[in-house]
Structures are given as structure tokens and as C-alpha cells.
Structures
1.
Amino acid sequence: VTVTAGAQQAFDLLARILVEPRRTVVALENPGYPPLRAAFAAAGARIAIVPVDEEGLIVERVPAQAKIVCVTPSHQFPLGAVMSAPRRAALLEFAQRHGAVVIEDDYDAEFRFGDRPLDALQTLDRSESVFYVGTFSKSLFPALRLGFIVAPPWAHVALGAAKQAADGYCALLAQETLAAFIGEGHLARHVRRMREVYAARRKTLLDGLQRDFADWLQPVPSAAGLHLTALADRSLDLETLVERARRRDVGITSLRRFDADPQARRRQQGLAFGYGSLDERGIAEGLSRLRKLAP
Amino acid sequence: VTVTAGAQQAFDLLARILVEPRRTVVALENPGYPPLRAAFAAAGARIAIVPVDEEGLIVERVPAQAKIVCVTPSHQFPLGAVMSAPRRAALLEFAQRHGAVVIEDDYDAEFRFGDRPLDALQTLDRSESVFYVGTFSKSLFPALRLGFIVAPPWAHVALGAAKQAADGYCALLAQETLAAFIGEGHLARHVRRMREVYAARRKTLLDGLQRDFADWLQPVPSAAGLHLTALADRSLDLETLVERARRRDVGITSLRRFDADPQARRRQQGLAFGYGSLDERGIAEGLSRLRKLAP
């Protein structure tokens, strides 16, 4: 396990050791997480964006020359789909057939509601092709800046050297505090408790959306995480709505922010609602203000 | 000011924004600090090593095509020279004439004994060509992993983007704690107190070297820092000595570890003695054990 400064440094270190500038093709989910794209772009990768659907990444759309495929199988960011078992198998098969690697960004697997989780790609992998990236940004808090990579053995030396060159090592006080926190069982307890808290917030949000916004927002089914996404008809002007909401202290994000292909003709649009730092009263108040601004 | 994960991340971010792979020539002091070299090598720089003497970097030996020059003017690492005022002026003149930048690694400027310090290159710079790198690894402790860059205004946007892509930002708890520690005057008090502590350690070390090792070690005059270097005749086998000392729990480092040009015919050799984490008794005991192993 390589300890990193959050998931972002994990992406950055992986980009450093895996990308040959101007050559390596990296397949990224679209819509997806812009800072991940930024790390690979900074390393000089050729980026191929691949659409997602309700089963996650559409594996058959990954270009054959892709040498790195990045996915968020537990909870697609930002749409929320869980990658289906057949897609997981197809992705691993792709990696093995093309000598590609998979970066499994399991950014908020801790907060899963409902069904039993599917096996991680890292668990299913039989060909040493998966890098598993975890973070404590969701289970604890982002300003902690701690995450980790579980890498195949062949990559350990390069990853260690990249970490050394990047910043040496992560602050020991934070690492040791977190290790004790985990070791004494506090993290597991915290996650259990917060899972209920987040489930209640999620219910408030989902109920509100279904009750008061059904005429223009369709929540995307999703079983995990600290945010919920809802799709809207393409004719609506969501950018103006987001801006007006911001002026009323309602923070919502347009899906367009996560779209690497904003010129595409047939483009989904929608809103992402985060509830990691907003309690049920706050959620209700936010929805009520938003309702008055509805497009 | 860009807050970084120690000086190492500062070097790494600067390498990312300033180096064009396989093109940019970076001039580094030799002997010098290997992790600095590693950061520039990882970014694909062409590395030119430049010798130092008792006035610091020999500026006239910097190749004209160098676009980045890295120096440790307060306390050359590892030899200990303070860069002279004429050399500082010559380096800034070089930078201005060739459109080069200077990276001023002021790694332990806090612990200066004796003379009033010379102005930093950053202070003397009139052409926005100096990046000043500071760290709290020496004034506090390395595992804190906090440092900073003072950059010319033209580089702020690129540096911010590089930090974002690298790891987002540094852990806020550590940053806020340090800010309070500085703001309440504790850092200044700590440095004042430690300066006396380190001066006493340095005296113990220097006295011991001059008394018991004068036959084969010549300490390099030096007015700052947490380590002292001593040169030895080239005929001695210091590598074996370092290894034998290590087996007796005496940690000394051969200068060869800092030499980027180990094939050079006329090569200095010597030993670096660190006293950042060893009290006077420990220093005396270490010297006594070392004396018995003398080559």
C-alpha cells in the first residue's frame, strides 16, 4: 500500500509512472471527475472519453489502443451507477487482452445503502492489472489529505520512486493518528454511524426531488455516496439556474462541469446535489429556495 | 506564497511548470542534494552539473543554455559554503541575460551562526527570475511535510494548477496549526532557542574533529546549518569506513552520496556529519567510536 495525499495524488503518481507523454491513451468515464482528467492531461496523456450508462462504463466503447482505463465502479462519478458484474468482467478481460491497466477509484464505497456490494475489480483481478485507489476524504474529511493505492507488485518500485520525487512521504503525525483511529475501531464506528446520517439526508433529498421537482428533474437511481444526481430536459437553462441558486446560497452543480465533451450534440444535462456537509433541515431549506427559482 | 508538502514538493512542482522534457537544461550544484536531482530527472530535464567552491556555485561554469539554475546560497548542500555577494550578483545577471530562472533553496537559513546574513537572491532579484523555496523541515521537523514557494507573479497561475493536479492542497489541520504557531511567536522563539542548542552541538563536533581527527579530516568552514562536512584525502577508503561505522550505530555519510559525477578524475571525498537529532553527549560518543575505526 502506498499512502498518498488524497486520491488526487494517487491519480498523479499513477499518471507519472504509467503515461508516456503524447503516446499513452487513457480512457476516462464521461461525465467524470475533472481533477482526474487534469492529472492525466498534466502528464501528457492522450485522453479518450467513454460514455457511461446505468451499468457504468460502456466497456465496448473503450478504444482498443487504451493502455489505462479509469473507472468509479462502486458509484460512478457523477451519475451514480454501480458498475454491473458483466461490465466488470468485460473490463478485466479488456485489460488482460490489451495489456492495459485499470485504475479503480473507489472514492465513496464506504457509504453504500441497500444491496450487498459487488466485488471490487481489484478483488476480481487475476492478471495484476488493477490499481485500487482509496481515500479518507469521504469517510473522514477531505482536508485530511490522505488516501492510498493498492498496486500490483510489478509497479511497487516505480510508485515508491515517484512518491519520493513528488514529496518524499506523507506527514507522519496525520498517518499515525489515522492508523490509531482505524486500529482502535473508531473509523468503522464512524462510518456505521455516518451511513445512517447520510441515508437520512439522502432520503430527504430524494423525497423532496420526487415530490416538488418531478416536473423537470429525474433523479438517477444510485445506491451509495454523498451526492445525488438528477437529469433534466436538454431545453432547460440550468447554467443560469445554478448561478441564481448560488446567489441565494444554494450550492448545486451542473452536470456540464463534469462533461469532457461539451460540444457533443446529444448531451445529458442535469444537476448534482451534495449532502456531505448539509443536514436534513439544510437540504429541505435548499430545495425550498430552489423550487422558487425553478426554470 | 504556495504552500507545499516540504521542499521536495516545491522542487517537483517547479520542475513540472518549468521543464520541457528532453529540452530544458537545468544546472545543479555538484556535490548537491540527490532528491532535487531526482525531481528534475523525473520531469525529463537535461541535467548539467556545476562545481562549487568556497564561494558557492561557480557561476561562470553554468552552461549558457541552462534555463534553470538551482542553488543553496545560505549554506551550500552538502559542503556548507555561503554564496558570496559577487557570485549572487553574477548569478542574477546570468539569469537576466539568458532568460533563465533561479531556484533558491534556502533549506536551513534559520540556523546561521555568526555573521549577518547576505541578502537572499529573491530579495536582490529585479527581473522576476527567482523562485524562493523554504521549508519547515529544519526549523521544526521533516515529518511535518510543510514548505513553501515564493514565486514571481508570472508563474502563479501555472503553479496553482500544478499543485491542484498534484494533490489538491496541503492538509489544513497542519497548515492552520503551523500558522497559529508562527503567529503566536512560538516558531521564532523555538528557532532562537534551537540556534543555541545547535551552536553548542556544532562546537562539540568541530572541537572533536579538530582535536582527534586533524590527521585525516579537514572540516569545511561553514556558518550555518544542522550538518558539518569534512574533507579527506582521496587515498582513504571512506566507503568501508561509513559501513563499519554504521554497524557500530554511528551515522555518517560519504560525500560520494551527493556527487552526481562519481566518474570524475579529481574528486573531493569526505564525510558529512548531521547533528540535528544528536545531542552533545551523543556527538562525543559517536566521535569516540569513529576514532577507533579511523582508516
2.
Amino acid sequence: LTAPGDAAPAPGADTVFFLSDYGRQDELVGVVHAVLRRLAPRAVVVDLTHDVPAFDVRAGAAALSRALPYLGPGVVLAVVDPGVGGDRRAVALQVPGPGPRWLVGPDNGLLVPAARAAGGVERAVGLPASDPRPGRAVQGPATFDGRDRFAPAVTAICDGADLAALGVSLGPTTLVEAAEPVNETRTLDDGRHRLRAEVTWVDRFGNVQLAAAGDVIPGAVREVSVTVRAGRGDPGPLPRVRTFSDLSPGQPGLLVDANGRLALVVREGSAAARFGLVAGAMVEAVW
Amino acid sequence: LTAPGDAAPAPGADTVFFLSDYGRQDELVGVVHAVLRRLAPRAVVVDLTHDVPAFDVRAGAAALSRALPYLGPGVVLAVVDPGVGGDRRAVALQVPGPGPRWLVGPDNGLLVPAARAAGGVERAVGLPASDPRPGRAVQGPATFDGRDRFAPAVTAICDGADLAALGVSLGPTTLVEAAEPVNETRTLDDGRHRLRAEVTWVDRFGNVQLAAAGDVIPGAVREVSVTVRAGRGDPGPLPRVRTFSDLSPGQPGLLVDANGRLALVVREGSAAARFGLVAGAMVEAVW
Amino acid sequence: LTAPGDAAPAPGADTVFFLSDYGRQDELVGVVHAVLRRLAPRAVVVDLTHDVPAFDVRAGAAALSRALPYLGPGVVLAVVDPGVGGDRRAVALQVPGPGPRWLVGPDNGLLVPAARAAGGVERAVGLPASDPRPGRAVQGPATFDGRDRFAPAVTAICDGADLAALGVSLGPTTLVEAAEPVNETRTLDDGRHRLRAEVTWVDRFGNVQLAAAGDVIPGAVREVSVTVRAGRGDPGPLPRVRTFSDLSPGQPGLLVDANGRLALVVREGSAAARFGLVAGAMVEAVW
């Protein structure tokens, strides 16, 4: 985290990037959209995803971090919030850009990785217990802060409000950080290298993203021996490839994925199903 | 329902609130969006939800009613329509605002609860058998009224058409109303009170909303004995709390939810799964 | 496919119609939206669907073709792309309109049926290996062309770029075409007619769309004997009806659906579940 900066960003924003674990089966996402539309009618809302596993702050933080480099100017609204209504803080963060300049959500580890990816927290404020727009009365429910606290704060930022008008200043170093995923590499006695890395994401296709950067394995390595912990069967030696079509259909392999991370994949198939892997599982690779 | 009013709302609208049971797995929702975009290019569409259980008019009506207080000006397009193509009427309703001034959809009980929440039906018209915009020929299919009848009517309203131009006037009292959910409270011989209430909604997290208003149980009551009918095990005595974080993780309780209704919840867990509850199930509470 | 035309469409577009098999559980769709928002801030994105079954090019092509007649002016961005990163070409196609004038995606059979429905391919270009906008460097990942190749090409078209500026000209007849679904009718020895048709789509409600046009069975035929191959039980003689409400709840029948195709349906029920049918299954009908 950087020290609090002096520079205020240009006021206002016209794009809201919205991520949550609300799902789509209910009207929760739609109601937040409606509040944004009512309070900031000129803002366009880009839904990143609303299918973060319920209450899974780390998964939400990972998705937001992956998306961040591709976002243009705007405000991030992120809600994965098992502690809603409790004493966890609600915060708005300011970051340097050139992407989104603000992130709004619960102070539970969801925002900090993305804020770091955006250059670090310049300023942070804690939002009041209800609608933070000036002059609004504190309201009743304490179970739907996305609608009642975060969305109004986002629209105030869209309208050009300075963070100082929205809440009390917080030291960026006091923000809650989630545990980093396991990601360790060491050299074995025989000169080979071993990576031990946590699964950070299983995508829709069953591709298994690891916490490790794609370049941890030198480009010249053509084959890697992979072991899974608490999974189903060991992949064994796998080819290191550039893309899916370097594999034959159904063949597993390792590649550097679209986020620059190491990923275990099966061409036109699910590596997660094949090897019994879910987010949080541990994978070892030796080369 | 109120009597038909004289006041016409300001013509036109620039927001469409869209709810359906079309799901997202097909292109149905997208095609309706495309029609709205083509016919009313300046309107913004806010999707409330499209995952109302198939054909479940009451669930759709409940979702729309819950959302309504949070919607700004605009037109509601709502389609949960097991009788499509049959003799159920297609209608457009006018309500007082300050939120949406119009609701468009089938006359099967889907719209009336939301119209009531919006202040009551001021005017109602029955839409013709196909595209209701002036001068359009009657078209063939009778299975996708969202695309062929309702969306064109919505865009005509966005463009400022008066309801009278869209169809024949209907008496608001002739509109079909769905059965109200069960919601009964009575005093027992021993002076305690018993609530018998239907489950109106199980949300994505497994929170169980009841038909009962949150204030049916006086605020001073700290513990309520809860029984479920046709569920799995009885919750027994449950704490009455303000919010999730007044419970420990995994603990069940009762609270007033974000819609002001009584809800059976489990912190960071699913009350529906824990007690075998689905929409339509019956819950009894004694205090 | 038509021969390449001379007429250039009016430059630029303000609507993007987006279809993929990315699903909604991850941030993939949201990231593509963010790229579109950043590079073409005035364009509105209409999501057709993102739940095409993973890697199922034919299902994606069918959905896009069904949607096409309802789309207004704009650009289609379609990505169902099991060959991403390989030697399949990435293409942008120009068609006559009056709907979308351009389609962008992989050259694997996904786009051609919709292009044909839009009047045939007038011009086609192959996109370079990365961001095709002039002056952009070739980038690294080869696994997320929706984000890195197709979306930038779409935004260049939105901005008024001519196809010739985006890639090398291709002969429209060289485009890959997917296998057509089975759709055969013949007259039997006894004078009756037999249709053999592939299931092209099972929608959210379980309606079973066949490859056959709705008018293959003359309007006067009131009953059709239906047999399913590799399904569960035979429907037997079914009524031919105009719409769902001509059936009683739970009753199966045949109708011409909202796309003008023959469909096997059950009123307020799932014909797919009832008869064990999925996309690709074969249905025979005799009348």
C-alpha cells in the first residue's frame, strides 16, 4: 500500500464496474442497478460478475484483481460481504488510475488486491452506517448494504463528490487484507525446481488457474510433472504449451493463461473435473 | 385498486425495468433487448431478474413488488406468462409514481401487486393480439409475446404514446389478481401469539422470506419458537436479531430483512437447506 | 454466400450484439464489456446470451441465427471458439443489413448461418494475430481472443473503420461452414409423409425446436405421429396446435414456434424432459 496521496482525481465518473455474490436468480442485482440508474442516470453499469460463490471474499477479490487491468476510468462497486450489518467497515478507496479511480465496498479483503493492482490506495474513507450522501437520514435495514450504502456512495462519486464528503478518513494501512494464496517455489537437492501453488480459480470451462505467475517456469521447459493434493489422480508429466490448440482434444497441459498466470487445462475439456480440483486446492509442479 | 384517474403522466420514458422467467441460457432475453434497442434507442434497460421459476406467476409478482420501491421513473416490462397465446389479456397499466408510471405484461396476477405498491392502477388498457404500435399489421407467432407484443408496447410508451393509443380501456377492477400468500396471526389461549405465514421467497443465499411484515413480532421479543410444515426438522426457539452478524456463523435466527419482511436466516449459510424450505412452504412462529 | 460486394455500409455503429459460451459465473463477459466500454464508449452492448454450451459451435450458430432477424443496426460479436490460439482464422464479415452490418468472431462455422440470414457475406477479412486496431503491437496471450482480438476489432468498426483497415481480404466462399442439421422429408409408400429432423435447441422451458420449418406440415393436418430416436418413450400421435394454450396443462403437442420452426412442446412443462430429448437428437414425425 502506498502512503495517502495529495492528488485528487478529476471529479466524477460515468462508468460503474459492479461485482458481487448476489447471483442472478433474484432481483438483488437489478435493484442495485435501479438505484444506480435513479441516482446517477448518466452512468453506465458494467457487470463484471455476480456469481462469485456466496460469501467467498477471496474468490471475489481474485476475480476483481484479474479484471482490473482491463477496466477503463470509473468506479468499482464490489460486494461480497458475509459481515454485512456487523462491525466490519464500509469503505471507499481512491487509487491512481489510469483505470478506475475509486473502489467501494466492505473492508474485508475484497478490495485491497485490486486497489494494489491499480497502483495502491491513495486515500480511504469509512462510509457511515447508511446512505452516505450528504443530508440523507440513516435508514433501517442492515442486510442489503449494496443497495442502501454502497450504491448511493458510488453515485455520489459519479456526481463528483470528493471522498472527504462521504466519510471519515482512514489510514490505508488499516485496511483488512485477505490471506494471500499459497505460491512457493524452491530448488530441490537434485537441482530441479518445485512449485507449490494454490488453485485461485476454476473458470466456466474447467480451466484451473494457479496463484503462480506464468513465468515462474522458464520458457525453455517443455514438460512439467504435476501432482495434485486432495484431488483425483495425478496428472503426471504434462506438456507446457502456448495455447489450447497445441494440445489434442482431451489432452491436459500447462499454459500461461490470459491473466499471465500458470494454468492447468484440458483442451475442450475440464481440467477441474479431470483432476478433482476446486479453488483452494493445492497443486505441485516439478521441472 | 384505485378508481381510474384523469391525470395523464408526463409523456415518455427513458428506462425500462425488465423482469421475466425467460432465463439466461437462451437468447430470449437478448432478443427482447434487441427489439427494445431498435424501437426505443434512447431507453436504458435495467434487468431486474430473468430467473423467476418457469411459469411461476406468484414468484414473479413477489419479486416485482419487492423491487418496485427502489425503481425510478420508467416502464416495467414483466413477462411470466404460462397462458401466452391464449385468452388471458395482455395489458398496460398506469400508476401514480414517483417510480415507474407504467407496467406492461400479461393480465394474470403478475402486475397487480406491484401496481398496488406503486399507488394503485389509474388506467388500464388491453393490448391487441400483436404489435400494438399504430399501423402495424397483426403478426404470426403466438408464443413469444415479450418480443412481439409487450416490447413494442413498451417502446411506444417510451416514445410518449398515451395508453389510449395502445389498446382498449379496461376497468382496473377487472384485472386478474393472484392469490395472496398466507399470513395470519392470532392470540393463543395462553396469551402467546402465533403467526402462520407462507414462504414467499428463498434467495440465492438461502434466506427464507415470509409473507409477514417484520413488525408483526414486537421489537421487544428476543426469542421466537419456529415450526416448519413439510420441511426438515423444526428450528425451535430462535433468536430475533437485527442483522446477520448478530448471529455466529452457522447459527439460525429471525430478522427483519431488506424488504421489511420477517425472514428465517442462517449466518453465512442457507436456512432453506437447513430446514428444507421452499417458496410456498408454511412456517409457524410462536412468541 | 453472395459474391463480395462493392457497397461499403455507412461507417460506424453504436450497438454491439454479444453472444458467447463464456458463461456468467466468471468475469470473462464483464471484462469484454469493459474493453468495449473503454474503446467504444458510445456503443451500447446487447447481450444475446453467454450460456451457449461450452465449445458448442453449432448451438451458438443456431442461437445467433434465430436472433438475427430481430437485431437492428450494429455489430455482432460472437465467440464460441474451441480452436482459440490455433490456426483457425479470426474474421470480420460484412453483410447487407438492414440489421447488423458486421459480424466478428472465429471462422469455425459460428458466423456463416447468421450472415446468410442477414443476406449473405459481402466482404470478409481475416484479423491479425492480436489487437487489430492500426498501430497496436501484437500481444501475448493466445487464449482470450474475445478480449484481445475480437473486441478491439468490433470497437474499430464502431468507430467507422473500413474492414480493409482491419485485416486481409478473404474470399467469402473460403469461410468455414458447420454441418447443417438433419432435416429430411419424404413421401412413404402409403402416401403419408415422414419428416426426420434434428433437435436444434432445447430452450429454458424444455421446448424442443426441430430443424424443420413450421410449414413443412400442411396447416390442415391436425394430428402428427411422432417418434424419438435415442430418447425416452415415444410421444405417439400429437395434436398440431397454434399455441400453448390450445393444450391442457401437461399435454404435449406440436406447434410452429416463435422462430417459425416446428417444435415439440408440453404446456407448462418440459417436452425435453418428458421425452428425453437434447440438442442433436433425432425426431421423426409422420402424417
3.
Amino acid sequence: MTYDTSLADGFLSRLQPPVEWVDDHIEVIDQTLLPDELRVLSLHTVDDVVDVIQRLAVRGAPTIGHCGALGVVLGMTALADTTADECRARLNAVASRIGSARPTAVNLNWAVTRVREAATRGQTAYEIRELALAEARQVIALDRDACTRIGLAGLEELAGRSRLLTHCNTGRLATAGWGTALGVVYAKQAAGEPVEVYASETRPLLQGARLTAWELLDAGIDVTVIPDGASAVIMDGGRVDAVIVGADRIARNGDTANKIGTFTHAVVARRAGVPFYVAAPMSTFDPMMETGAAMVIEERAADELRRWKDRSTAPAEVPVWNPAFDVTPGDLITGIITDRGVLKPPYDLSIPGALGTAPRREHHG
Amino acid sequence: MTYDTSLADGFLSRLQPPVEWVDDHIEVIDQTLLPDELRVLSLHTVDDVVDVIQRLAVRGAPTIGHCGALGVVLGMTALADTTADECRARLNAVASRIGSARPTAVNLNWAVTRVREAATRGQTAYEIRELALAEARQVIALDRDACTRIGLAGLEELAGRSRLLTHCNTGRLATAGWGTALGVVYAKQAAGEPVEVYASETRPLLQGARLTAWELLDAGIDVTVIPDGASAVIMDGGRVDAVIVGADRIARNGDTANKIGTFTHAVVARRAGVPFYVAAPMSTFDPMMETGAAMVIEERAADELRRWKDRSTAPAEVPVWNPAFDVTPGDLITGIITDRGVLKPPYDLSIPGALGTAPRREHHG
């Protein structure tokens, strides 16, 4: 992995994609360093890809998927003397390794599986790699397009609601486009409508305070950072017209895994009478999952809560519970804004309908 | 202000009071440095006192009151050539200055007023100072006693509930005794009952992660730090038997000002069916305040959210909303555990009853 810091000077004005394919390698923004520094990392191996995903240098469910998809291409490089069968075995191994780098976000597995299935049809090592690269690029292009559709669907659904509370980061740093939940914010800006964002800071890694604040400031959008715990006082005080968040995995009944703290916002929104929206591409739905009960929630290192950078935030040895996500029950969600329109309750009908699959008998039996 | 670091070595085993009168000055623990370092500051002037209170080196509603009460004594020192009338004028000025160092906690004003009223009866500068010191010591002794009573009342009220979630710090660092909400935890330990604490970290200043974790580890009590936003997932998961928090000011209808994030926990507890308790001495009630609507909520510096120590947590210029407190409506509070027993709804009857004042007509009219 090599570092290119040449973009740091102009990073507030230039739009660097969070993940892109350049020549024969991947370039990603190291999101752990924002907002202090815009450092672009060059990834040349599958190890590089797994590393940036696991340490959250690359984060945001769609962006993780893009990095993983391009990572498969890296894994299929320099195999000129390899038979097609050997290549396919390697393709499966690489896809499996990258696909399991993080357990909760469904987009990673979805993207990697698409690339694997497209590439496996190749007849030579060269063809397999070319098909993988073409499919990864397609996944990225589809996401950019999906973000645009989500933004426009949200623009209509949230008409007249200008003061939005969001959690974590779901914008240009999390997607190939203008984002999912933040896509709705950018769509409002693009449409010339008023929009004002409360960004909850999102402990422990502060994706709201660091990343959402950074990209909205950069875009000239009115943003105010609040502590996660201010949820109740700000919503009860009538200062929020809607909550809008992203998603890492959505079950067929609307149960939604998203960054830890999302469920708390949803409970508070319900009491305050504030509508609570999830914005996500259709690839976030897990058609195999009836409810959120079976979702595997990644637990992360204790030091994410005990240290901030090199400074302590808690006693070094104190036990910590650090789940990366929580699961918001579908019954707290007003609507799910997707690239195929806004899905509404009852989700066990609307979601299978949008997925093009019939509701499963056991779910209704 | 001078520094004495000689206690740092043994700080995990020795019980240093957060505020105490030593010879002719005040010694306080600088709580901003915990858990990294136990530094004891010597305060010799009213300026020193206001400074440590405003920058939260001394925090916790009762402890702020003790520091303020002793601060009045500092203000009445070295006045030998002053007439009693001049002394009384100075007494009023000092009490007024210290009493307004922070706007939300009622204990500060309550303690300072007690000292002022006791001291003003003195006939000489010497007598005025002696009366002030005696009253400040009395305020501290009463608080130690109140904590014991709160702990014992909570022990009874929370019998069988061993897994407690708390917010901020309400223990040995916040009071002259074993604490308010944490007093109940210590009482359970002292009674040989099982007790296990989830400490929400309490952004932005992390009093839960830093101070509650530190003092419970020191006492050998099972403690786990969680992000504030994990409130819903941990309570919904059935891992919490009760929430118990402190208070900075309680209105006559039970509305309770406490550290930002408390109201959010209370909303979540209600949905999860988890009882939600406030533990506080009777001096926390504001008999003049009918409801929480009129409570002044201190807003603190934006950099508390934008920096952790000398490391950035957000863009340097991003706007921030940083209220120090929120107000939990009385209707979300299962009981208020006080040194005069546990008050239950309807609070507009039980609280005036405990205060020995009749319900006000306008409140029921």
C-alpha cells in the first residue's frame, strides 16, 4: 500500500471519490484521517483491501461493496500462466475472503457475489479478470444511479421537511454518488429547497462529527453537530422535521441494521412524533432474512471506546461493549426510500413486492 | 492555584475526597485529568473556585455545591481590618458570584445560600468567616449522610434488580459520600448483593467512561462502558433491570434536569419496559419551579464536541449544539430515590409533600 498526499491541498474544493479504479489498482480515501487530512491510499493486493475495510479506512455500506468488488479484480491480477479452472478456484477463494471481511453489511457480499458470478463465465485468466473489472465498474455505476433515484424519491417524500437529523455518514464518502440519506439532503439543495442538517456525532468513531460534518460543510449545507444523547431533547423540542438514516442490511419485514445509535434515534422519534426514514439502495435488502433477529452484529475492539487517536477516553482495562450496529424494528420506520421508490408499511408485503419475490409462506403461516 | 501530585501513585487504592478543606484552603481532585492522573489542586481564591467549577475540574451537582460553599469561606479570608457591615457586603458579593458560576445545578445556589445566611449573623469578620466555614462543613456532612440514606432507600426499592444502566457520574467523585445513583450501587455491594453496571460514556466530556468506570473499577464492581447510542439495543435486549441516574435540578412535578443524554435513556427505558429512577438529595428539588419548562439549560463551548484533549473530533469550524443538560419529563420517571425515601407519581403531590410545602394553587387551578 502506498500513500499519495498530493490531493490534500485542495481537498475542500475537489471531489475525490471514496473508491476508484486507477490503471491497475484501487485508490481510496483513508476515512480514518478525515477531517484532518485527505490521504489517498493505493491498494494493490487483496490483503490491502481487507485491511482498509476492517479498520474502516473504507466504510459506508455501498462504498465497502465497491472496494470489495474491485478487490476481487486485484486478486485476479498477474495470473497469465494459470488455467481457467485454477483461476475460478482462486476467484471463489478471493471472493469468499473479501466477502467476509465485515459480517453485517449485506452490500459487500452482494457486490462481491455479482463480480464472482460475472467473472466465472470467462474462458481464460485474462477474460476472467476483464469480466470481473467490468462487473465491478457496473456495480459502482449502478450505485451512483441508485443514489440519484433515492435522492429524488426522498425529495418528493420529504417535501416541506427541511430540518433533518441524520446519524453516521451516508453521503459522498459512503457511496459512489451523492449518498443515500445525505442524497436526499443534496437533492434538496440541488432543487433549491431549504435544508438544514443535525448530524449526531456517532460514537465511537464519530462518522457524523467527522465525515458528515466535513462533506456538508464542503457542499455549503447548513450542518450542526450534536451529541448522540441529545436526540430526545432536540426532537422533543420540535427542532427536527424528520430523521433520515442509511442502512447496512434490511430484512423482509423492514427490520434495519445500521450504525449503533440508529435504533435509539428511532425510539425517540416515535415518541416525539417525528417521521423516521431509512434511505438505501435495493441491494441493501437481504431477501433471505425474514426479520432482524438473525442478523449477525459485528462487535468491534474495546479500544474504539477507550481511546481517541492516542488519547485515553476511559480506563485502559475497563470492559466495553462495542457493537458496530443495532437493528431498528420495522415498526418504528415511517418509510424506506429506495431506488425503486418509497416503501411503506406493511413491509412484509411492500419489501417482497419490490424485490420481486412473493412473501414467504412461513412468514405468514 | 498550586498542584500537588504526590497522591498520584496510590490513587487506585486511596480514597481522596473530591473536595475538602485543608488548613486554610480547599483541595479538589482535577476531574478533567481522570482516569489518566489523580491530580489534587489547591484553591486559595474565589477566582480559583469559579475556574474549577466552570471548566468542570470540579463537577457533580453536590460536589459543585461543596466547592462553592467552601469557596465563600475563601472569599471571607484576611478581612481582619474590615467592619462587619463591609464583610457582609463582601459575603453577598462572593456568594452571588460563586452561586452563578453554573446556571443549571440547584445545589450550588442552595449550598452557597446556606453559607451566606449562616455567616451573615456574625458580628465580626472573624465570626463571619468561622460561621461560614462551620456551615460549609455542615453542608458537606449532610450530603455524606444523605448519600447513605439514598443508597439504603435504593437498596430496598431496587431489590432483585442487579443489572443497572447509569449515565454520567454520580458517585464518590460527585458527592461527599458514596454517591446518589452510584450510592445505590455501592449499597448493593455493601449488602453483598449482586450488582453489575452499564456505564454510558456520556458525551461530550465522557464522565461515564472516565469517572464512573474509574471509581467502579477501583471499588471492584463489575462495570461495562457502552456508547450512549447503544441505549435502545441494550435495553430492548433485556440486559438492563433498571436505569438509575442523578439530577441537577428537579421541579415540583418531577421534571428533572440532568446530564445531556438522560432524557434519551428515559424514552428508551419506557419503550423497553425498564424502570427509570432518579437518585438525588432533597436539596436537588427546586421548590420555586413548577415544571421543567423554565429551567435554564447551560450551553457549553463548541470545542467540547470538536476536540478530545488536543485531537480533533470534527471540523474545527463546524457549528455545534452542546447543551450540558436535558430535562426528563416526570412522566417517564418511575421513582425519585431521596434521603427522605422514594417519591412516586403523582409527583405534583409527593414532591411538595416531601418538601413540606403545599401544592401551589396555580398548578392545580
